[in-house]
Amino acid sequence: MSETNQEWPLWEVFVRPKAGLDHKHCGSLHAPDAKMAVQLAREVYTRRQEGTSVWVVKSSDITASDPADKGMLFDPMEDKVYRHPTFYELPDAVNHM
Amino acid sequence: MTAVATSIRVNLTPPVQYVLRIADTCLVHAQRLAEWCGHGPVLEEDIALTNMALDLVGQARALLTRAGRLEGQGFDEDRLAFLRDEGQYFNLTLVEQPTRRSSAHAPGGDFADTVLRNFLLATWLKALWTRLSTSADSELAAIAGKAVKEARYHQQHAGDWVVRLGDGTDESAARLRAALERAWPYTHEMFARDTVDAAAEAGGLGPARDALRGDWQAEVAAVFAEAGLAVPADTPFMSTGTLGRHSEHMGFILAEMQSLPRQHPGGRW
Lengths: 97, 269
Hints:
The complex is a heterodimer. Chain A is α+β, with helices and mostly antiparallel strands. Helix content of chain A is 18%, strand content 21%. Chain A has a domain at 3-63: Roll (Ubiquitin-like (UB roll)), CATH 3.10.20.520. Chain A has a 3-stranded antiparallel β-sheet, with helices on one face. Chain B has a single domain, classed as Ferritin, core subunit, four-helix bundle (Ferritin, Up-down Bundle). Chains A and B meet through helix 1 of A and helix 2 and helix 6 of B.
């Protein structure tokens, strides 16, 4: 058996705190397979009634942006205030915004 | 200085013994599961085992409180849990067997013992809670209604482990088979029937143990098939924990459970 097979794969855990809200990433854990990962996520991350639904995703299946590209990817948005709704003055006719 | 009793004696009636059998089975099973705290094979399963232990402690607490009221001398859950002598505990003998090789008093056992026992018991408890949820005793019915959800999860989690160990490596399958060989003779007691069972059945308090056998066998057989485990042949051996006659392991586990409440009677912290 190869070295990498000795350890259980890592899973990222997403918990939905209550109906209507989004699943939020809350941590990771080791588990032998997807079904057991859901059970162990329930044990580790919802023991104080934090959740009503759990997703797990193999960490290796996540493709992430490179931290080194942070400047290139995200800094250009810094001076684009017009992308925020607060940039615009609402006409008086528009109420309740 | 007022003397505080460090040992109590329960007045046994069939309903009291019926409820104590279930309560003590949950309590002692919880104690064995909790022995894994800080020693689980992986952190995640360590937490899972202790979570399940806490579910069982909760079930035991509710049942002991009910048993105390049925008994009538005013014993609360704490005194019933910790101050009875060995012959007044009525748990299934299976749950007092050691499971983890590490303590001086635990001569055998490993994670496979825990997984298998937890599966066999959760399947039994699920069948029991399901029937108890229609008990003529409304308090017992309410306890059962809550506990059946917990047992259903315990059964699934433990059953999934049985499949993973049985259908895993040669080593895990061999250990699971050995665990099954150790546990199986004690399952006989889960379905024994005596006057306590008959009285509970007749009075609508709850099912007799033999009524649980069919459901249990079907569910166990289905998981064993998936795990590649053969269902062993039944043996004539009949353990007697439910009669208050225990194996040699009971004294050690009680000593561990009782030493603190007996050294500090009524202690709070």
